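Subject: two folds for Thursday's group meeting

Dear M.,

Sorry for the delay on this. The cluster queue was jammed most of the week, so I only got both jobs back this morning. I'm pasting them in the order they finished. Each block is the input sequence followed by the predicted structure tokens. Could you check whether the formatting survives your parser before we put anything on slides? The first protein is the one we discussed after the seminar.
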Amino acid sequence: MLHRNAPLSPEGRLRLVQRCPHRPIAHVAAEMGISRACASKWVNRYRRHGELGLLDRSSTPRHQPTATGSDVVARIEALRRAEKWSASRIAFELQAEGISLSRRTVSRHLLALGLNRRRFIDPSGDTNREPRKITARRPGHMVHIDVKKVGRIPEGGGWRVHGRGSHQAKAVERRKSKGARGGYVYLYSAVDGFSRLAYTEALADEKADTAIVFLHRARAWFAAHGITHIERIVTDNGACYRAGAFARPGQPASRPGHTPTTQPYVTPHPSPTGYPRTSPNPSANTSAKCRPRRSPNCSSCVRQENPSARISASGPAFLTAGRS
């Protein structure tokens, strides 16, 4: 695609080569506002290939020794069409077959194949995703955590209570015109999935450090009400839960008095039978943090090799319920 300041289009290149047989190339190039080298390039292309040589060429290299093989691309297309898997799942399955490709590479090939969107696979909109219930079997088995952002209500109530044009509503507008803002409050809630016992706090922000201290206070509150052991924490993909300070174990908090949390148990490639999925290739069962060598001290490797060890004695395991 030509940029807006391009001096030559395919039609302009044709006019250039039509003038050059009767006049010096340098004179024609000066008239058209380009260099003599540029004019010579298009004249030579026209002499070799005709009008087809005046079209733009692809910038893709002619030789790509590290390019993905056609058989691998065909395998990616087959998995996408047959199983409707995401790029992450396809990369995981290829790793199990001994083919090492990153998720980004798989995504690039899906885009080139025109299969990057689910609606491109099934015009009818059919999907292979089935909703699954998260069932807690005992108190503390699964604790759900979420944050709700709500606006602060003005003191004495706002216009929804007193009506527009009321004395209270006008007082609020006057405060706003002077720069006063009510702001927002963030309601952190932790609900036990079995007993439905809930703990809520109104906090100032939704940062990872705030989520960490809320989690520890919630654990203490649940312990005071008889739930002494929390096995799993279920969250969404909120930024405070995906932050490294919330996820990594043994990391000090950024403010004094904050304590670190434990390593989350997150499996991004669920299998039809549930979590975790063990690959037939032992080398593919290692986590991304310790690949290609398996470390005996890596908790992710221990959980992949022994799924029963995913509930750590030092704290709860974490499950991330992603948004579809």
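Second protein, same layout:
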Amino acid sequence: MINTTLVYIEQRRAYLMLHRNKKANDVNEGKWIGVGGKFEQDETPEECMKRETFEETGLVVKDYTYRGIVTFISDRYETEYMHLFTVESFEGALKACDEGELVWVDKRRLVSLPHWDGDLLFLSLILNREVPFFSMKLSYQGDHLIEALLDGRPCFVTKRLLLRPWREADAKDLYRQAKDSSIGPMAGWMPHKNVAESKRIIRDILSGEEQYAILRHEGMECIGSIGITKYRPGDHNYQKDCGEIGYWIGRDHQGEGLMTEAVQCLLKHAFEDLQYTKVWGGVYDGNERSERVLKKCGFRYDHSLAEVPRKQLGDSADEHFCFVTKKMAAQARNRDHRYEEKIL
């Protein structure tokens, strides 16, 4: 096992990226990553970060933040602990690097450059300075990401989306989407009143197991939420090893198949990793968008309940229940050519 540093130097809205295109037999050949390298004998993470930054860029680090540790596991290379840093201020003049081309890249363009799939997950965290120190595990077969964990909890990368656990630092993004009066009431909850309320909801509700923020690759901001809750004895529709999926997505991101992509991803996780035998979905009368998502994902109508109380809204509505099995979900996924998950 080796220890390395990975450093993202900030300047206005850009990161200094290293296009690894010069070094022979480079594990990162052709990819765009931050600067950094291996620890030397008796170095601390901070000492290694400063030395590697100066050696590769000629820049002297002034202000920095130790953001997290990424455990990189590969079937081709030695396991690596990557100590992740962002640098907020520096001195000196940029020099040429013998390992690749150094380029200031707008943060919004990072997703368009060749990279390791898992890089998007930790970049979505370090772009937000409010995110506290984290631990991430990324496991690869070749260049293919097969497992991702954030502080021990699963994450997923699809063709256009990231699904990862909510963090309280996501409150501003959540409020931006959840304050919309066209979103919450369709799912039975009130629009959020302010960022403080969104932070409380993340802490008290969305931080539960199998609850995920939905982020687009472009922008890497939270645009919706998805989760699956395992049924317990006494729950409506209770059966052993079954659960219910719930989801929503911001208005500006509807109509592109993104919600279908997220639901298909989480269903695959539910059936293959959680070993569910059936997943239920419920929609209130009139929620046609959510109903269409369920149909696209292979759900079949089962029954309805009349006048179900919606406590937050202070009213009641008919609720319609559908279910899907592993076989039904796989058949629907194979019919949907827009879905192209990277984690298998």
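Two things I noticed about the second structure. Residues 2-150 form a domain with the Nucleoside Triphosphate Pyrophosphohydrolase fold (CATH 3.90.79.10). Confidence is low (pLDDT under 50) at residues 338-344.

Cheers,
T.
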